[in-house]
Amino acid sequence: MAKINENYLKLPGSYLFSTIAKKVNEYTAKNPDKKIIRMGIGDVTRPLAKAVTDAMHDAVEDMGSYEGFHGYGPEQGYDFLRMLIVENDYKKRGIDIAIDEIFVSDGAKSDTGNITDIFAVDNTVAVCDPVYPVYVDTNAMAGRAGDFGKDGRWTNLIYMPCTEESGFLPALPSKHADLIYLCFPNNPTGMAATKEQLAVWVDYARRNGSVILFDSAYEAFIQDEDVPHSIYEIEGAKECAIEFRSFSKTAGFTGTRCAYTVVPKELKVGGVMLNGLWLRRQTTKFNGVPYIVQKGAAAVYSEQGQKEIKETISYYMNNAKIIREGLACAGLTVYGGVNAPYIWAKTPNGLGSWEFFDSLLEKAAVVTTPGAGFGPSGEGYIRLTAFSTLDATKEAVERIKKILY
Ligand SMILES: *Cc1c(COP(=O)(O)O)cnc(C)c1O
């Protein structure tokens, strides 16, 4: 008889966004005339840059011609894109990454999930709390998380609380961690880490033989000079860290799908090069990102492409500023929103995340995301995103101000 992977049965239902949708539907049914403003979505809303769509149109024409047709491409991505990544994302920052250390993929979500394939089941895993749920659930599926407890924590995961007291930065794990997931600038807290702060982790990983899985999906939103865009800006990181990047938030590719992962050749575990293992994994289980999409991603690095994506990011960061300043003005304690498109707001008067979520929905018709949905330490916070339109953002902030005054 066939047997299932029973780890899947241990997973709690993914209630966060379905519960939010249900509450919003109930509200709309009761208040058909109220205009809902969604500040909870983690998806971009502005269209692809023209430089990108122009390149994609050209690539479509290529595909329709004998001379320009592309069938299966290299699983690791076309060299034209990998070269641009090496030059622009690394060399320009003084980081030396080789082209065969870049693996182009269909998403940082897939990669951060799939990377667990190359690690043994008995590795200990440390995650931040609150956290992007993908890191937790994929380790649970692989049998690395133990059981899901009533306290909302997996028995075998090491949780690193990111709280107000610690500036929402994790402290070094209390127990030895083999694999450490870090995401800066962070989703959901919107907080960034400085070079000095990341250096502590690189040092820990090198001393303990740990591997850092560094999610840098929001690097393009960094505004402060002293915030590193890559973990490899820290000396020694190539020996202990894998980096995940994505065109999703950087250039509006959430629906187009293109990302990449960097596995340096210096990174060895038990003498084995992880670069080779990931290459084997990708070439076996993945057949590459479409030529048309990679041509679009390459155009992100063109002069015109850079100009356009910077305008879009400024637009979102202006929204972030409006939210941050507006909510602070209304008396809320707010974090993030400076180097990331997320604002992490403390609930007033010790309200629970869901209570404050309900109150903002009922009284202001504004949809947010309850912090508790990202882990136990997210309780007492809500996340707002800067991905709405300017008008909707202003309107939402005004409505929230009105109910809080
Ligand atoms: C949005 C996001 C990503 C990007 O995922 P893609 O699969 O590339 O769209 C990765 N990590 C975090 C934390 C995110 O919020």
Percent in helix: 25-40%
Helix-strand pattern, N to C? HHEHHEHEHEEHEEHEEEHHHEEHEEEH
What's the name of the CATH homologous superfamily of the largest domain?
Type I PLP-dependent aspartate aminotransferase-like (Major domain)
Low-confidence stretches: none
In spatial order, strands of the major sheet run 2-8-7-6-5-3-4
Bound molecules: pyridoxal-5'-phosphate
Number of strands: 15
And the CATH topology of the largest domain?
Aspartate Aminotransferase, domain 2
Arithmetic mean of pLDDT: 97
Q: What fraction of residues sit in β-strands?
A: 5-15%
Please write the CATH class name of the largest domain: Alpha Beta
- What is the gyration radius calculated from CA atoms? 21 Å
What does the overall shape look like?
globular
The figure for the number of domains is: 2
N-to-C span: 63 Å
Number of helices: 13
Question: What class would the helix/strand composition place it in?
Answer: alpha/beta
User: What CATH architecture label of the largest domain applies?
Assistant: 3-Layer(aba) Sandwich
Largest sheet: 7 strands, mixed
Tell me briefly what this model is.
With 405 residues, this protein is an alpha/beta fold.
Write out key terms for the chains shown.
Aspartate Aminotransferase, domain 2; 2 domains; Aspartate Aminotransferase, domain 1; 4-stranded antiparallel β-sheet
Describe this structure in words.
- The protein is 39% helix and 14% strand.
- It is globular.
- The strands form four sheets. Strands 2-8-7-6-5-3-4 form a seven-stranded mixed beta sheet, with helices on both faces.
- It is of the alpha/beta class and 405 residues long.
- The chain folds into two domains: 13-42 and 304-404, Alpha-Beta Complex (Aspartate Aminotransferase, domain 1), CATH 3.90.1150.10; 53-301, Type I PLP-dependent aspartate aminotransferase-like (Major domain) (Aspartate Aminotransferase, domain 2, 3-Layer(aba) Sandwich).
- The longest helix has 27 residues, at 303-329.
- The protein binds pyridoxal-5'-phosphate (PLP).
- Pyridoxal-5'-phosphate binds at residues 42, 107-109, 132, 183, 187, 215, 217, 246, 248-249, 254, 259.
